[in-house]
UniProtKB/TrEMBL annotation:
Descriptive protein name: ATP binding cassette subfamily G member 5
GO biological process: cholesterol efflux; cholesterol homeostasis
PANTHER family: ABC TRANSPORTER G FAMILY MEMBER 28, ATP-BINDING CASSETTE SUB-FAMILY G MEMBER 5
InterPro entries from the UniProt entry: ABC2_TM, ABC_transporter-like_ATP-bd, ABCG_transporters, P-loop_NTPase
Keyword Transit peptide among record annotations: no
Lineage of the species this protein comes from: Eukaryota, Metazoa, Chordata, Craniata, Vertebrata
Statement: the UniProt record of this protein carries the keyword Transmembrane: yes
Localization: Membrane
GO molecular function: ABC-type transporter activity; ATP binding; ATP hydrolysis activity
Location of the ABC transporter domain: 22-143
Membrane topology, record value: Multi-pass membrane protein
Gene from which this protein is expressed: ABCG5
């Protein structure tokens, strides 16, 4: 059993039923209730003479991990305020403010309360101040004490560990040590020992936590002005290049009327998912690291951070794709109809969101964002090749690839865009003086002929394909939530 009087000795090693010795971090994770695989360690923990159940550990203890996981663009006061909001329900803003101010005063952070946290590329507070902010975040959860060794350098770790040992040795040789041991034994034998000082159980509801997380994410990212500009106009930058390359679509077959439209549709299907992927890879990993930390403290579950991020990026995606669609649709001269423009915008938006959601799915189970980026890019490329029918008609593909195409969102987005643009178009083929040899190249005169030849039944399945495209969104959200549930299991076994 690990009690106060032998705690430093317990830190040196903690033997699990796997028959190996683990270190300080594993012991602290065990006592703080951060080890979800409950059968992998044994021992007893008593507080005020009452034995705690393993599922009660996180409700009573907290400790500050070695790595500081904080949002870069929030100030110290903002960061601690959101943490306090996640721990308390139905508390006035004045109560939260006073609680945060008290903790900041205790850790000498009041004079820098309005400074941003910062990161490696963004100047902010110092490393020591970041450490104190992490400590403050734990103190806001009202835990029974704090024991730590400074691990920022090997020298400091040895120095502070030696200092702890000196204190322990002096304490064990003192008279009060024997009195404490005797008091512990007496307390364990009493019929009604003192109550266990659990953390506050007055935590917000699941919806309130989601709202707090959404506010915190938005406040953090909205302070990155350059980041906001890039997120809103990244699709437009791509559109500028395409518009400059195509200039204006023609209706003459000899001037690329079909080829240019097919090429534009190909780009509108393949590029937006990639920009969505870039957003998720750049923005979500820091949030994932924070959710890993705070979910261990019981503040919320990982999937709640995921859903909050999805709700956050949706308005940015809508605005970014709207800017791109308005520019590219009317600049290059796609079918001049407001309803068809709305359909074009909706398809490109779905493709963009699918790319970001697919990235979130992989970020749940794959730790390295670079691997995720490569994986999503590969999946997107494979979907474009197999599903669009623009490189090779689906009817001409081998049966396995033909069946696989039905699992790609690119199949539905490309067919909807093809029908949306080509249906009702009429083409010309040169002038009255065009030679017979050249005229033989004019194999179609209407857009409907191109659809029937390359995408049979696409016109009759237009609405169905549109609905199937948007069905990918809730399915990927559900899979992403499952992915982060799996992440819980993976992290708990590490």
């Amino acid at each position: 059993m690990c009690t106060f009087h032998n705690f430093p000795d317990c830190i040196l090693g903690w033997k699990t039923n796997r028959q190996h010795w683990s270190g300080k971090t594993t012991l602290l994770d065990a006592v703080a209730g951060r080890l979800e695989h409950k059968d992998s360690f044994f021992g007893e923990v008593y507080v005020n003479g009452r034995q705690l159940k393993k599922e009660q550990f996180k409700d009573c203890f907290s400790y500050v991990p070695q790595n500081d996981t904080l949002l870069s663009f929030l100030t110290i006061q903002e960061s601690l305020t959101y943490t306090a909001l996640l721990t308390r329900q139905k508390c006035s803003s004045n109560f939260i403010k006073k609680k945060v101010e008290a903790v900041m005063a205790e850790l000498s952070l009041s004079h820098i309360a309005d400074k941003i946290i910062g990161s490696r590329i963004l100047v902010g507070i110092s490393g020591g101040e970041r450490r104190r902010v992490s400590i403050a975040a734990q103190l806001l959860q009202d835990p029974m004490d704090l024991v730590s060794v400074d691990t920022r350098s090997k020298e400091r770790e040895l120095e502070t560990y030696s200092r702890v040992q000196v204190i322990v040795s002096a304490y064990k040789s003192s008279q009060i040590f024997g009195q404490v041991v005797a008091a512990i034994e007496r307390t364990k034998g009493t019929k009604e020992p003192p109550p266990i000082p659990f953390k506050s159980k007055d935590s917000p509801s699941a919806f309130s936590k989601l709202w707090i997380l959404l506010r915190r994410i938005t406040r953090n990212f909205c302070k990155d002005k350059i980041g906001i500009i890039m997120r809103l106009f990244q699709n437009l930058l791509f559109g500028l290049f395409v518009a400059f390359f195509l200039l204006r679509l023609k209706s003459d077959l000899l001037k690329g009327a079909v080829q240019d439209r097919v090429g534009l549709i190909y780009q509108c299907v393949s590029a937006p998912p990639y920009t969505g992927m870039l957003n998720a890879v750049a923005l979500f990993p820091p949030l994932r690291a924070i959710s890993d930390q705070e979910s261990k403290d019981g503040l919320y579950q990982k999937w709640q951070m995921l859903v909050a991020y999805i709700l956050h990026f949706l308005p940015f995606s809508i605005i970014s794709v709207a800017i791109f669609s308005i520019f590219i649709y009317w600049t290059v001269g796609l079918y001049p109809d407001a309803a068809r423009f709305g359909c074009f915008f909706a398809v490109v938006l779905a493709a963009h969101i699918v790319g970001e959601l697919l990235t979130l799915v992989l970020l749940g189970v794959v730790q390295n964002p670079n691997i995720v980026q490569s994986g999503v890019a590969l999946l997107n490329s494979a979907g474009v090749i197999v599903g669009t029918g623009l490189l090779r008609t689906i009817e001409d593909m081998p049966t396995p690839f033909k069946l696989l195409s039905y699992l790609t969102f690119q199949k539905y987005s490309s067919e909807v865009l093809v029908v949306n643009e080509f249906f009702g178009l009429n083409f010309t083929c040169g002038g009255p003086n065009t030679s017979t040899a050249i005229s033989s190249m004019c194999f179609i005169s209407r857009g409907a002929q191109f659809i029937d030849k390359n995408f049979p039944d696409a016109t009759s399945h237009f609405t169905t394909h549109f609905l199937l495209l948007y069905a990918f969104l809730p399915v990927l959200v559900i899979i992403a939530i499952v992915s982060f549930k799996i992440r819980d299991i993976i992290i708990s076994r590490q």
